[in-house]
TrEMBL record, chains A, B:
It comes from Shimia thalassica. InterPro entries: Metallo-B-lactamas, RibonucZ/Hydroxyglut_hydro, RMMBL, RNase_J_2, RNase_J_b_CASP, RNase_J_C, RNase_J_CS. It is an enzyme of class 3 (hydrolase). This is Ribonuclease J 1. Keywords: Exonuclease, Hydrolase, Metal-binding, Nuclease, RNA-binding, Zinc. Pfam families: Lactamase_B, RMMBL, RNase_J_b_CASP, RNase_J_C. Its EC number is 3.1.-.-. One of its GO terms (molecular function) is exonuclease activity. Residues 18-218 form the Metallo-beta-lactamase domain. The gene is rnjA. The lineage of its organism: Bacteria, Pseudomonadati, Pseudomonadota, Alphaproteobacteria, Rhodobacterales. It comes from the Bacteria. The keyword Transcription does not apply.
Amino acid sequence: MSSERLIYLPLGGAGEIGMNAYVYGYGPENEERLILVDLGVTFSDMETSPGVDLIFPDLTWLMANKHRLEAIFITHGHEDHVGAVGHFWEQLGAPVYARAFTAALARHKMADRGQPEEVVKTVSAWPEVTKAGPFSVGFLPVSHSIPESAGLVIDCPAGRVIHSGDFKLDETPVVGEPFDPELWADVCKDGVKALVCDSTNVFSTAPGRSEATVGPEIEKLILSAPQMIAATTFASNVARVKTLAEAGERAGRSICLMGRAMRRMIEAAIQTGVLDSFPKVISPEDARAVPRENLMLIVTGSQGERRAASAQLARGKYNGLTMKEGDMFLFSSKTIPGNERGVIRIMNQFSEMGVDIVDDANGHFHVSGHANRPDLERLQDIVKPQMVIPNHGEHRHLRAHAKLSNERGRASVLAVNGTMVDLTGDEPRVCGFVETGRTYLDGAIKIGALDGIVRDRIRMALNGHLIVTVILDEDDEPLGEAWCEMKGLPELGRSNAPLLEVLEEDLTQFLGRASEKTLTSDDKIEQELRRIARNTCNDEIGKKPEVTVIVSRMS
Amino acid sequence: MSSERLIYLPLGGAGEIGMNAYVYGYGPENEERLILVDLGVTFSDMETSPGVDLIFPDLTWLMANKHRLEAIFITHGHEDHVGAVGHFWEQLGAPVYARAFTAALARHKMADRGQPEEVVKTVSAWPEVTKAGPFSVGFLPVSHSIPESAGLVIDCPAGRVIHSGDFKLDETPVVGEPFDPELWADVCKDGVKALVCDSTNVFSTAPGRSEATVGPEIEKLILSAPQMIAATTFASNVARVKTLAEAGERAGRSICLMGRAMRRMIEAAIQTGVLDSFPKVISPEDARAVPRENLMLIVTGSQGERRAASAQLARGKYNGLTMKEGDMFLFSSKTIPGNERGVIRIMNQFSEMGVDIVDDANGHFHVSGHANRPDLERLQDIVKPQMVIPNHGEHRHLRAHAKLSNERGRASVLAVNGTMVDLTGDEPRVCGFVETGRTYLDGAIKIGALDGIVRDRIRMALNGHLIVTVILDEDDEPLGEAWCEMKGLPELGRSNAPLLEVLEEDLTQFLGRASEKTLTSDDKIEQELRRIARNTCNDEIGKKPEVTVIVSRMS
């Protein structure tokens, strides 16, 4: 029996939906040669990560083992799969492989961060394979909500792994390759060790619907719109953008695309050949001259993002165009949990303008890009893997997917980020744990999620911030009174006196009676002043703020 | 023609779902005698109101006109209708009328704020009426998700107004009075001037389902649970708590209620007679001795609230009880938009424990307490009002409800908070605008939403906070160097030097070359130091923090 082993180690994406990063390794224990599948981001929110620009997986382990890393493979061009490439390539240093459209987006990501674009290599679909140490990796086309998505066929001496990537089983996907069950069955016919599989829609019990079902419904809707219509979807959903544009064209509308991300995406799709036909589009300048009843805008911002085209239209004007009473706005999209407030804000702003809002409440104007539960079952039946490793999901998704697999007689394991799984034997075996977490991009700096920096910001947001300054002379005696400044706190307290005055009085009184032992120790003064300030605030305003004490000594 | 008029003026609840407060007036223009219907709160969120404890409507206008206020009527006991009574009664000073159960809750609210409980008067249902100046007001029973909800029959010389309150058309509501179409038709048979009507579910196109449909499904679910089951719903949904408890009892389970709000609510319901039978409940202490497969917990926290029983169970232990592998947790509730993250957090925590989560995705375990679109139509057909004034909704709900009313041949108006509507004529007529907004309870202090206090807190959360102190001697010369402290900012910048050192160097350099004109002016020093500090931060960390400059002078 060989002492070499095949390992799987998620560093991001297993235990959350977002920031995907999965390591595979083959070789002697702790000397496995490694490949990384996907390198994505996730997005911040005000509740847990205010002010943070992007969230990355913590790649400390991988960076410490970069000498073992052979290559990075990107399954498709969504931000949660490719978004971190430019931010980490320098520390990882391995070649990046992707299909043409994805590679074009990855090169944008590299260029945006001043990284060399040429390390991103374009590869063709299966049966072409790329050698990476002991691995040979092929890109198996599959349908999803972005063109050229691919599952990976990962071969090594321990056997074949199918890494599904994000997928749905769409045989009429509008753009890109249809799911080809014969091809998949053929690739898997000699036995598959493990299927590492997307879990996003494991709770959706009906089979997924094809992208092709959306167009006719949207066309009907456009024909019913008396004035201008604007529609939003994910910029990267090239098929949907095309569906919307073609439905608009059939309904006699001129089409105008708005939002940088959407134009960039369509351009990349045309340049790389994944989009061979697209209705003629007009510029926003030209759109202004088109009668409203003949115009259709397709815009970014389906998740209510404040800076996107939809939010700007909702606030008034974008590229010189405005929505008006009698216009219609279509969300051809689903609201990702957590984004509801932003989306509802836009809906109400449009309502104030007299714009009619249509969303996907009735299920006619959007279909998901992920495989539903019956589709997951069907894929297992096609791939017939020895074991199923659920990924791309929160804990509850992974758990349900593992359970589903067990019920169908397949070995499975619930492996969240940091769980190293040995796939060599007949069953998956947890063989180690690696520390993982989140790294925040905060302005230009990468900080750890647990560094305390963001925690301090959250505390200031909840409690306000009080600053106390005291100056001590050469003899350690207070020079003048304590001085307070505050941010995010009310001016008047319960006693109806200015809060700052009450604070300064209490603190100055304390200084007047403080012992030499206290006054000679910065730590003691700080501690005492903080305690008094918090208590006074609690009495006056019913809140204990964050307190920063600054002691200046003249000595 | 009389110069007296009947006006309607929403101060909260029209343009949002929450903090309901509706004024009606009758009399000569600007001398109308007033009544207030409902006095509720809404809840803060991290995005718009971090650290805020409760949100109230801005009642400045009403307080300025308190001499005209005859009475306050509370339709039902939900927080968004009664939650602000204790906070504003002192400034309004009018008697508060409610039915027995609601009055019991209102008295709790008064007592919680040290206000006199006896100003809350218990009234009986229609045909009893309460005189309040030119008004006579009766409580017309209607079904909702809390017992004893009532529509109001508001009579004055200008005619009869029906204020629906929150309602659904449930003829088998489990607890409380069924909706009685004959009674409503009888009350309305001599003509109704205006129906002021709940708009919450105007986008739900199927008729609402009865509370009675939920019990059998829940019983089946409980029978399928191999181990302990815990279920959560709104504490105030007494009917659902009863439905859950009875289903549990029928399935052979001992019932334990957990969470202060839920116990308080059930006690009030029993004491006021709205709940005449309820399964025997056991204490958490006794529950620990019951075999898990015979136990059912009913707990607070259906919206993921961090301090509620469900969240505490999800984190580990509550009242000595823990959830374990194989247990089941049921959300017999709907997630209010904006609360998704909190609910999902709990779901994943339970998943980590191996607890099976059941929610209302299939629609079997929850029904809404609000009238759906067909129910709104049915109510219009029963009440046959001259006009319909939509309330209790965001702008988009009010707009859709007004449109629906117009389509059915009834006059309507979209009146958001602050819009004064004259109901005297045949059609509603906007006759004025009053300044409205939100008042925050922040700790113990009421602050205005636009005071800038919360805005500063949000800015600190997004940008961090830098404090710069300088000391100037008697000659306005800098004494020592500039001193910086920071909160919520990274320690190292792009140059890999400590950010504070780089800042102090830049700021001290500036002080060294500053002109006398600058050094003698606190404003100028502040302005310059802030500018330099923000630029240095931008260079070093790609972020411009909030900056507080403290200038101390020895003079």
